[in-house]
């Protein structure tokens, strides 16, 4: 979480029942090296104790505009100037409405109005209040003004109903905040580095017109190659067939089968600094590829033989390279994922749950975990593949710096 280190962050807590969860947000931010000051509304102080927030943040909590407990002359301006980022967690419909309409009648709303740093809102409320067109209009307006809005989670709400409106888990909030703060790409961060990315689903020929394939669209791998090039890396994209446009400033090497992908990857491997294998590589190929189109018949049996594991081969011969794999799982994400980290000797693995409709194959979003060989995990909330690609490239940058 290098991006949070040394950052000045205001956590503003409004009077939603999820206010207590903000305590863990503050604690996680501090562990990540951020300096945190907390503002609470009067209502929030009825739900969670300012004393706890003060203890966890290490600073007195600002509640009233008229308290004289701090050193600043005009406290809300001093706080606003201090902040690199201002996050409202949880943000009630009332507070969202006030901010969107320029009402500044307490410490939270006056300070956010004076803040020039990044402003982020985590709405949490009853589903009907969240879906109310007034709330939606206010959120859309704030987004238009450049505020970042986190989508609430779906689940059991304080009012004993199920639906959208839950405050997401503190870990997800902090990861999202981190992502939002990566707003500027440093185009020189990976200069002098070469990154090889694989993408798409391999095609295993049956005869000249048929093949065995999978549902990979290549979107994840192409997004990673795009980000790697934007960060200044010499980027090689080894891609199975897709219908996507090749990103700018990327060396494109088309392949089709697992064997042809392996040949190219192995040849490039000694010269690269990192390999990111987002491709869905077929585990099997047809033993006997027919030279001519197979004629129709009632039944047909195909004999399959095992393909080599490209990534495991790279792990076994690793020298200076950083190796990142993916795991496409439908259950036991962490267990199976860590198994692959070990077996393939990876520096990091992106475990995605491909049974979810908004993650994995052929969609624009993804979610899951980053897994590391020391057993650490980092949860990745649902986000666009481009956002995830940026996180992956930032992590690869961190891993390369530690080399
Ligand atoms: O392309 P999209 O539609 O955007 O979808 C993205 C994705 C779901 C394909 C991607 O996010 C993903 O999960 N890619 C890896 C899919 C996969 O093959 O997972 P696996 O668990 O079977 O393999 C683990 C790792 O070993 C992967 O990095 C894979 O590239 C690699 N592998 C697998 C088999 C093999 N024979 N050789 C390999 O190198």
Automatic annotation (TrEMBL):
CTP binds at residues 283, 293, 308-311, 326, 340, 344. GO terms for molecular function: FMN binding; metal ion binding; phosphopantothenate--cysteine ligase activity; phosphopantothenoylcysteine decarboxylase activity. Residues 195-403 are annotated as: Phosphopantothenate--cysteine ligase. It catalyses: N-[(R)-4-phosphopantothenoyl]-L-cysteine + H(+) = (R)-4'-phosphopantetheine + CO2; (R)-4'-phosphopantothenate + L-cysteine + CTP = N-[(R)-4-phosphopantothenoyl]-L-cysteine + CMP + diphosphate + H(+). Residues 190-397 form the DNA/pantothenate metabolism flavoprotein C-terminal domain. In the C-terminal section; belongs to the PPC synthetase family. This is Coenzyme A biosynthesis bifunctional protein CoaBC. It comes from Veillonella montpellierensis DNF00314. The gene is coaBC.
């Amino acid at each position: 979480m290098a991006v949070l280190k040394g950052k000045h962050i205001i956590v503003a807590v409004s009077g939603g029942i999820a206010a207590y969860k903000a305590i863990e947000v503050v604690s996680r931010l501090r562990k990540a090296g951020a300096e945190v000051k907390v503002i609470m509304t009067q209502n929030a102080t009825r739900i969670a104790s300012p004393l706890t927030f003060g203890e966890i943040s290490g600073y007195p909590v600002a509640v009233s505009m008229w308290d004289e407990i701090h050193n600043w002359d005009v406290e809300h301006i001093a706080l606003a100037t201090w902040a690199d980022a201002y996050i409202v967690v949880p943000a009630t419909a009332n507070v969202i409405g006030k901010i969107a309409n320029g009402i500044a009648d307490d410490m939270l709303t006056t300070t956010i109005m004076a803040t020039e740093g990044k402003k982020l809102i985590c709405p949490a409320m009853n589903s009907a209040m969240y879906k109310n067109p007034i709330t939606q209009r206010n959120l859309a307006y704030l987004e238009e003004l450049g505020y970042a809005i986190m989508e609430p989670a779906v689940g059991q709400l304080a009012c004993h109903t199920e639906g959208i409106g839950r405050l997401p888990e503190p870990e997800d909030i902090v990861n999202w905040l981190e992502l939002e703060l990566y707003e500027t790409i440093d185009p020189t961060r990976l200069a002098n580095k070469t990154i090889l990315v694989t993408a798409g689903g391999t095609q295993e020929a049956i005869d000249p017109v048929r093949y065995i394939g999978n549902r990979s669209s290549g979107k994840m791998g192409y997004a990673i190659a795009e980000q790697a090039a934007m960060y200044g890396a010499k980027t090689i994209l080894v891609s199975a067939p897709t219908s996507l446009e090749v990103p700018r400033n990327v060396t494109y090497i088309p392949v089709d089968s697992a064997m042809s992908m392996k040949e190219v990857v192995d040849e490039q491997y000694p010269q690269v600094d990192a390999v990111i294998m987002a491709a869905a590589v077929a585990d099997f190929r047809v033993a006997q590829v027919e030279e001519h189109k197979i004629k129709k018949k009632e039944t047909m049996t195909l004999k399959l033989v095992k393909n080599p594991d490209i990534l495991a081969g790279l792990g076994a011969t690793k020298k200076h390279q950083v190796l990142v794999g993916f795991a496409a799982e439908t259950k036991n994400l962490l267990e199976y994922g860590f198994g692959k980290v070990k077996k393939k000797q990876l520096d990091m693995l992106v475990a995605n749950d491909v049974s979810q409709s908004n993650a994995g194959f052929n969609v624009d979003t993804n979610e899951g975990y980053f897994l590391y060989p020391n057993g650490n995990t980092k949860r990745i909330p649902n986000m666009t593949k481009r956002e995830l690609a940026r996180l992956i490239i930032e992590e690869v940058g961190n891993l390369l710096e530690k080399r």
